[in-house]
Structures are given as structure tokens and as C-alpha cells.
């Protein structure tokens, strides 16, 4: 997973873009954190290969890239959503598209409806459109998990004006297990301190360097104020953030030095 996610970490070279959204959802609804899973060794990724669809669906990556290009042109923020989607997929049950599964009568609470994903995770319609185009070109060939990975890679490409251009290994299989409590348990919470963040990444076989580098993905996209305001992190008298940064992102302040990547 380190390799797959590290690709996205190249986003650190992107211009700093943080936008705010006043309305949101409350992480206060989170249940108290349970014990973290036992750290497992990083998967080798040996079964994945660059050009995995070269024979079975030669245009697969081109098709996904075209759909993502159009979506990011319409709204660059969707690109940020697609990058986050790969993280939220991979951290829960591995990179298996479990984040995409809709509720059913037998599984009314999939990952998609968990607090970290609902309502903030965006870009599902782009994955649906890419998958629909792929099904027309080569039915039943390309996994949804690979579509999520290609789309995140392509979002990085377009948001960086082509500076981030990596070859994404493919060959992931789609999973069928998707439970909202797993997302709550596996995904790091916005309230986590450094110890908790490090432990959360260690549980996935990732180290502190991975944590720092991958956090660079927050160079793009938005956050709802509800993730930051309640714990006083943006409050001038209690914040331990760099004062200039805290002032810049404090609710009610005019946006400064931002590109329209909301
Ligand atoms: C280190 C632990 C992490 C925490 C606690 C965290 C938390 C968050 C939170 C609270 C938001 C705002 C969601 C919202 O209110 O809409 C967010 C947004 C985002 N996160 Fe993370 N995140 C983490 C790691 C990552 C990683 C590893 C990636 C990708 C490699 C990532 C990519 C993003 C992106 C691109 C956005 C913006 C999404 C959008 O604009 O729709 N995050 N994250």
C-alpha cells in the first residue's frame, strides 16, 4: 500500500490550496476510539503490474483519464475528492473499492455511509462514469478498485498541471465486504494527536515518513469547519498552529492566496 499511496503524496508539490466550508457534520458523534488493530506488514503488491490491462482492455487508462479530465475541468475540487477516495478505500479492507458500495437491505450501513465518508467524500459520480465507459469498451474487465486508483492518479496529474505523472500498477480485485464501523475504526480522525496518527498508520504498515508525506495531499481540497473548530485549534488564544496559517483558515476570515480548488 505504501507504494500506491506514496504516489499520491507527490501532491506536496502542488500549490497550497485550502478552502473552507461553513456547513458540515460533527465528529462529536463519533463513538470513543476502540483499540487499534494489530499492525500488519505492508503488502508486497507483487500481484500488481503496470500495464495490467494492456491486452484485455488497452484503452482502460486512457478512458479513465478522459473522464477525470472532464470532471476536474468542471470542478477542480472533485479531483481532491478522488485523491481522498483512494485513501479512504485503501485504509479500509485494502484497495478493493469497498468504499463505493451502496446500502442494500442486507447491508444497510456500508462504508459509504460512515461519518468519515458521508456526506464529505466526493467524486463517486466520476467513478461511475468511468466505469460505465469501461463497461462499453471492454465489459467485465476492469475492476472498480483499479478505476479508483487510476482516477486518483489522474486527478493528481491534472491538478498539478501534468507535473505529477506516474505509472499506476493495477490488478486489484473488488471486495464485497463494506461496513461503516470498519471505516470509523480504520480511518484516522481529525482529532487525532501525533501518537494516534502514527499508530493509525503503523496499523497499515506505514511509518512516520509515510504519514508526513501522504499528509501533503491536503495541499488540495477543502475541509468542513466542523472538523477543526470544536477543539479550539483555530481559536487565536488556544491554537498551537502557526499563527499566520491559523488566521488564514479561521472561519469568517476572507480567503487569501487560494486558488479556486474548493
Ligand atoms: C493523516 C491522517 C488524515 C486525517 C486525520 C485526514 C482528515 C481529513 C479531513 C477531516 C478532511 C476534510 C473532510 C471534509 O470536511 O470535507 C480531509 C480532506 C482531504 N484529505 Fe485527508 N486526512 C488524512 C490523511 C489523508 C491522506 C493520506 C490523503 C491522501 C493521500 C488525504 C487526502 C485528503 C484530500 C485530498 C482532502 C480534500 C478532499 C476534498 O476536497 O473533497 N488525507 N482529510
Question: What fraction strand?
Answer: under 5%
Total DSSP helices: 9
What structural class do you assign from the helix and strand content? Answer: mainly alpha
Give the CA-based shape.
globular
Annotation, overall tally of beta strands: 2
Unreliable parts: 2-24, 35-43, 255-262
Q: Mean pLDDT, nearest integer?
A: 84
CATH class: Mainly Alpha
Q: In whole angstroms, how far apart are the ends? A: 28 Å
Largest sheet: 2 strands, parallel
* Widest β-sheet, arrangement of strands: 1-2
- Report the CATH topology name: Peroxidase, domain 1
Order of helices and strands: HEHHHHHHHEH
Number of domains: 1
Structural features, described:
A two-stranded parallel sheet has the order 1-2. Helices cover 38% and strands 2% of the residues. The radius of gyration is 18 Å and the shape is globular. It has 9 helices and 2 strands. Helix 2 (60-74) packs antiparallel against helix 4. The chain has a single domain, classed as Orthogonal Bundle (Peroxidase, domain 1). The chain is mainly α. The protein has helices spanning 2-9, 60-74, 76-90, 124-137, 144-159, 180-186, 194-202, 208-215, 243-249, and strands spanning 19-21, 222-224. Residues 2-24, 35-43 and 255-262 have low confidence and may be disordered. The longest helix is centred in the middle third of the chain and has 16 residues, at 144-159. Bound molecules: protoporphyrin IX containing FE. Residues 5, 8, 77, 80-81, 83-84, 87, 120, 122, 188, 190, 192, 197, 211, 214-215, 217-218, 220-224, 227 line the site of protoporphyrin IX containing FE. The active site is at residue 88. Heme b binds at residue 218. Its cofactor is heme b; Ca(2+). Keywords: Calcium, Disulfide bond, Glycoprotein, Heme, Hydrogen peroxide, Iron, Metal-binding, Oxidoreductase, Peroxidase, Secreted, Signal.
